[in-house]
Amino acid sequence: MDQRLEDNFESELWKEFIELLFKKAEPYLLVRGDILHAKISHEYALSLMKTEGGNRKIIEPAVILHDVGWSALSPDEIKRAYGVNAVGNDESMRLNRIHEKKGEEIAMSILSDLGYEPMLIEKIGAIIRTHDSGHVIGSIEEAIVKDADKLWRFSKRGFQTEAERQGITHTKLYNHLSKNRVKWFFTRSALQIAEQELKNRKREFL
Ligand SMILES: [Fe+2]
Ligand SMILES: [Fe+2]
Questions:
Q1: What confidence tens digit (pLDDT) does each residue in 18-73 have?
Q2: CB atoms within 10 A of CB 166
Q3: CA-to-CA distance for 46 and 40, rounded, in angstroms?
């Protein structure tokens, strides 16, 4: 990795690197239509870091690349693996683990091809490997990636997209998010954002 990338996150070089990562992730993210999800989750991660801290060199690549593993599943498997209606079912959990494991492999290979620092690649890979399943948090970076991923559902575009892609009503999705919000989030800031977003979604959609 270019040494000038070190610790200057306002630099053009870092911005270019982030853009490049989105470009490398794009073909994989297109499979489930996740480009907007990655962009919005990335925005939430940037906000969360302002209040919670964390290492951007781990958080930003992890959040951008976290869902590239859906590309390893067929459209039918993706449908069975994910969403309100898939919760708790063994088959959905098995398929969900595949998107995590494949995501880890693809993300690590993208970062390695770009010459990213091996120690950081390991940490990013480990976060992606359990981004949807792990209930124990090993670091603030992991907490922020998981929270930013979940916050997508609470955003306006995420709420609309998820209701449509899962074939459920706005009310059903709203109730699902309301019910699970406390157990999903690891940081206080994410829960606060989610509560505010829920108020907005209620006003807009219900
Ligand atoms: Fe995921
Ligand atoms: Fe995700």
A1: 999 999 999 999 999 999 999 999 999 999 999 999 999 999 999 999 999 999 99
A2: 16
A3: 10
CA of 165 relative to ligand 2 center, distance in Å: 14
Q: Which listed ligand is nearest to 162 at the C-alpha? A: 2
On whether the pTM is more than 0.85, the answer is yes
Nearest ligand to the CA of 82 is 1
8-205 — its CATH code? 1.10.3210.10
Rounded distance, CA 63 to CA 124, Å?
9
CA nearest to 191, candidates 88, 44, 3: 44
Cα–Cα nearest to 158, from 28, 25, 36, 32 = 36
Mean pLDDT of all residues in 68-79: 93
Q: Any idea of the CA torsion for 94, 98, 101, 104, to the nearest 10 degrees? A: -140
Assess contact for 58 and 124: CB atoms under 8 A: yes
